[in-house]
Design a protein that fits this description.
Helix content: 40-55%
Bound molecules: nicotinamide-adenine-dinucleotide
Mean pLDDT: 97
Strand content: 15-25%
Structural class: alpha/beta
Number of domains: 2
Strand order of the largest sheet: 3-2-1-4-5-6-11
Number of strands: 13
CATH architecture of the largest domain: 3-Layer(aba) Sandwich
Low-confidence stretches: none
Largest sheet: 7 strands, parallel
Order of helices and strands: EHEEHEHHEHHEEHEEEHEEHEHH
Amino acid sequence: MKILVTGALGFIGKSLFAALKKEGYEVQGIDLVIADYDDYIRADITYFEDVWKLFKDNNGFDMVIHLAGEVGRLNGEEYPQRMIYVNEFGTLNLIKMCIEYKSKLVYFSTSEVYGTLFDEKEVMEEDFNVLSPTKVTNIYAMSKLFGEGIVNHYVKNYGLLAVGIRPFMVYGPGVIASKYKSAIDQFIYNALNDNLFTVHKSSERAWCYVDDFVNGVLTVIKHHEFKEKNYETYNIGTQEYIATEELAKLILELTGKPYDLMRVVELPDKFISGRKRFFNEKLRKLGWEQKVPLREGLMKVIEWYRGMM
Ligand SMILES: NC(=O)c1ccc[n+]([C@@H]2O[C@H](COP(=O)([O-])OP(=O)(O)OC[C@H]3O[C@@H](n4cnc5c(N)ncnc54)[C@H](O)[C@@H]3O)[C@@H](O)[C@H]2O)c1
């Protein structure tokens, strides 16, 4: 099977690309950077010519795993036009070529699409009868929900075969910490550098180590049954819930730093959910299970940051 991975140089893209290769798939990666890596070409998904040429030169793909895009809550609030433009136009360009070449599409959405539903219940793979642009809490979620809407439209009306992935709190080595990146990256980076850092009160998450997440994606592409006119999604993440205050303490313990580096602050009243509880039975029924416990995964990330110092 010949697979195109968009966003192949991103945090998840890099691991997914390597895992697909290891599994014996023929893989082509694209991203924005000019580089002469094996099986990689520079292509901007918002340039239809780039996407058109990519499909033409490769005589299409059996599957497109579409990760490329503008990512993150804060990024979306600071650069909303860019986020909407890249995530919608880029997705549309890929959809057009997937239909032309009969490529299956694996669309990367986000857990953020559930928005305020997290305040009401443990979410399942809710569909468009339940999800709503009035329930999401940030532009990033809006761009991904609209992206899912576009994919669903082309599935229902134009014969596209597609499945959606909703990742929950993926972490692992390789991310450069900043205010745009995850709490785990910020906590570890600041702890190792003896910087004070803030931690949200009343916040709780279940984190998923990148290898487990990538296995989740492999599980979906191997076992999901693509059906005509049927757009389905999978929550991919673990059920190892931890309060964010406890996560910060654990990171301070594992890095050997004092608890007084953390400052507990109120959860912001917008753009973010307190708890994100969800079901992942659908993925587990396909044979997936968590392999890397949080403590073990955190140690790998801490070692990676230490190697960067
Ligand atoms: N990391 C998570 O926990 C998480 C959670 C929910 C959803 N996701 C989704 O998973 C996907 C991958 O996330 P990630 O954490 O690896 O993010 P990332 O930012 O590391 O990777 C995204 C990649 O897309 C590339 N890109 C951006 N615009 C592009 C364009 N116009 N053309 C081609 N490439 C472009 C970037 O250069 C980058 O390498 C994204 O779609 C993201 O929304 C991730």
